[in-house]
What does this fold into?
Amino acid sequence: MSWMRRALLSVFHYPVKWLVKPHTIPLNVESELGIDKNRPIIYLLPSNSVTDQLALRMVTRRMGLPDPTDLLTLGQHEYPTCLFLRKTQRVITRGEVKTDIEEVFTDLFHTHRENPLLDVQVVPVFISWGRAPGKGTPGLSDLIVDVAAPSWLRKLFIVMFLGRDNFVNFSKAVSSNAMATQHGSDKSIAHKLVRVARTHFQRKRQSLTGPTLLEREALYNAVLGSAGVKRAIHEQGKSKKSTPEKARQDAQNYINEIAADYREGLVRFGDRLLTRIWNKIYNGIGVAHSDRVRELARNGHEIIYVPCHRSHMDYLLLTYVIYHEGLVTPHIAAGINLNFWPVGKIFRRGGAFFIRRSFAGNKVYTAVFREYLELLFNKGYSVKYYPEGGRSRTGRLIPPKTGMLAMTMQALVKGVHRPVSIVPVYIGYENVMEVKSYLNELKGSTKKKESTWQVFSAIRKLKNYGYGYVNFGAPIHLNQYLEKQIPDWRETLPKDPDKKPTWLTPMVNDLANEVMLRINRSAAINGMALSALCLLSAKNKTMSESELTHALGNFLNLLRNVPFSNDATIPDDSAEEMLSHVLSLNRFSVTDDGYGKLIQPQKDAAVFLTYYRNNILHLFALPGIAMAAVFAHKSCPRDYILRLVAALYPLLQRELFIHMTQDEALAYTDRLISQMVEQGLVRQEAECLLPPEANAKTFHSAWLLSRCMQETFQRYAVVLTIIEKEREISRGELERTSRKVAERLSTLYGMSSPEFYDKNVLSSFINALRENHWLDSTSDGALKYCEESAALRQDITALVWPEIVQHLENVELH
It folds into this structure.
């Protein structure tokens, strides 16, 4: 390193330290990228910038990596630890100026041939200042937009204005030893490495900033000029209520209503504001499996984020996480109900595009929206939409609505120029701000229309909300999915481009179900959800501190030793640490009766806990069945439990979106039983399984586990009892009667779950009964009692509390 370079590094050290706040992507380069801190490292940067090198030094010191301003000694040779592809542009003249990087790599490979034991990690590092995408029409603001190799004068403005938005993005290391052993001369290998690095950095820039923004005029031309929109305008123009001019004006108005107006400056401001809000209300945000999405971005995929929908906070939280994971923020499909002043304009500039609840009968709107979505895909914008259509009021996943997925597949079939991948996303919270309003809506109150006052009122009340969780599920590569499901799809496309192929609807239904399975497969266990599950299973929803701690420990061990999936996440905390954190959220009532602390829900708040329990109930469905059978029968063979799971699993899978096949579920249950025996949650005598002795420490945990699925069994018993009593009943009448009986049981026996009598949950169960042939159908579509439903009812009532069974036997339906 020259004396001039050292002087510049010294001069600018403190100004950069004051002005720059670098964000590292990813946070852990060892686990995600396999970079070894103890082996020699050479950093490879796109441009020879002093400020880039100093920002990198700030990050490497924080992470314990080698200093990028030092020299690296290999054998008898010294090499700089930081190499650059190009020099910065001159202030006056333009054009790229190359460095001597190829000569340095040529010499390095020659050194390897002299000493084959040497191995240097060449780590590409892309350093970005801000995340502004390119624009069709440059303006004065472009002076501070980071470009490939800005001049020192332009870089001065960039650092001054964008220093707090600096991103240091590491990539997987390239082994210099592996490169040196490739075929060819040292010079040709060095040339190849530099060429590949240029392409790599170009893709990095694209994944951070996204494609060039569409000007409004270009958007109008692209959408209004498409064949589908022209046809829809022509058809509407011929109707008595419209003219071609009015139809075209309607189409343009629809574009203005729908289209996002992305502004990177607002996103940067939003990032700083949200960082303050998150720090105020959350203890942290847990993010898992984000490396999957970065891999898709590196490979040039069109990324469609498909998350579950718990809260309005989802819009902000997921976009915030994506931004901090070094990925371009997506365009977000938002309900038209959120397009109110001033929030609608802010959301629109943050990337939201608005969608009506129904397109029915409006061909022009349908055509415009479809073309806009296709345009986003083809231009390379990532997109985010919610398959459930609205927020879950119960904490469970809602059966998906397939409209957006169908449009996505139609765009793919029509021809998207890049591979398209759907990324399911699980979002979880230890506190959801809308829980109270959800309960009121489930009880029948009218949903309040969103307003500015409602937003600010909610923000004002936010505090002490624990942790938020964002888990990225296994991606679905749509091109491969389509080829696998419909191998001959190209030959079966209808000639009319507006007509759906016959295979589209069933294929999209299967795809939607797969998305929901992968969302729940990526669940995040947290202290609030696990504590809620325990307390709601307790007799009076009250537990001593020692009982709750012991139960949390037993359940954590069960999930850690027999994982629900590779994608689900479990905190590393001990049971004591988890409970201490949960109590600090002040959502439980804690009293001391002289023998120790007693923990219970706050007054009239038990029903709110069902929301958090339902977030993770699918993880406890199979162990809950097994333990319920053991307690109900006092002693039963393992084979009996497996047969019971085989019978109930298709119903539970449909309701709770559990990802396993039936064979996988049986194998998983068998492993669970073995683990429960090992933990002492179950005793084994010969071939029979028994509850723990009443004086065993594990008895209370086992008893809680046997009760966690009780309300589900009771709901099943309600439906099957009504069918048995009526013998033949229409589906609509069965749903209505089941809901009435379930509501009565809820009142009599204090059920806390609002979904116990929810019409959507009951409807889903009745559908599952019919699809799995537990019910017969008559010629006019009515449902009919049969031997299979009698056998299922017998299995289920054996698991239900006797007082509930007795009440159902005596209930008068008419």
The two ends are 92 Å apart (CA to CA). Confidence is low (pLDDT under 50) at residues 138-143. Residues 186-209 form the longest helix (24 residues). The chain has 33 helices and 26 strands.
